[in-house]
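task queued by scheduler; priority normal; single chain, no ligands, no partner chains; default sampling; output format set to structure tokens
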Amino acid sequence: MAQQLNEQRSAPAVTAPPREHIGGQQPSWRRVLAGRQELVILGLLALAALTLSLLSENFYQPTNLLNLARGVSWFAVAALGASMVIVIGGIDLSVGAVMALAGLVCAVCLRAALPLTLSIGAGLASGAAVGLLNGLLVARLNLPPFIVTLGTMGVARGLTFGLTNGAPIRDLPVQFRALGQNDLQIGPLTFPLSLVAMAGLAALVALLLDGTILGRYIYTLGRDEAALRLAGVRTEQIKQTVYTLSGLLAACGGIMLTAWLGVATPTAAEGYELDIIAAAVIGGTSLFGGEGSVLGVVLGTLLMLMVRNGMVLLGFPAYWQIGAIGAMILTVVLIDYLRRRRLMQG
């Protein structure tokens, strides 16, 4: 009996199985391909790009593509944080307000003549603080994530108006605006600096999720929290860490957005909460938890913003964009459902 107890204590912690191996058998190459939601998004991206190239001659203009890339940059960064929260089975409705708060905090510090790095650090700290508060209330007090993040969304949005009495902050330093408006020239190709920053952050998040024990715990937490608890893992700390990272990444996106616009406003990113969550879901992040990828989130963001950009170029009114995004979400969810059912049937 003592030997059995020692073996149980020395057993390795529960880790999440690779997404391709869900089902308990070695998958064939067809199952692996069918199990990748990213391939579905790539197909829809190719279809959207082909359609827009035929309908609008302005879609492939360099200026339009650069603006699309800049929009994808800050949007995807915020969506990466929100997707991690969804993976553990939670929700974060405060991301849009955190983006505005981080941008305004950074702008206030810049207006006070603080150094650029210190101002950006203050903006990032404000987002991380909201995320930490979300994590404490959800993980430690076991409050519903929807209610908690809805409340902190209101608090953060109220702080943005209180910081400047509702007035925007203009005339931001050139060095700060360069982060969102300048480009990097590599041979004949031009890349926005914000896109390069997004790629770096996406790589770090991918390394965290796919290459660390914490990442495996995050996926397992979304699938079977009880298993982690039985293995002795403190799930409260994981939730708290994920929500803090979500606030930090939302703050990164907000600062990138502010640098792109060149002005900090209390209404920045207003109503973007559901759009950011939609981008994660379109990219294959399961609302039931336990499944999602960095590549899928980036592709989902690109698909959603590409459709919006195309509708603007084609002259559709703004209210039709809402319907188009809703139809896109339903289509992707239906495709994902059929894909999962086919995998379950073998």
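post-processing summary
- The domain at 35-48+60-344 is CATH 1.10.3470 (ABC transporter involved in vitamin B12 uptake, BtuC).
- Residues 49 and 128 are 36 Å apart (CA to CA).
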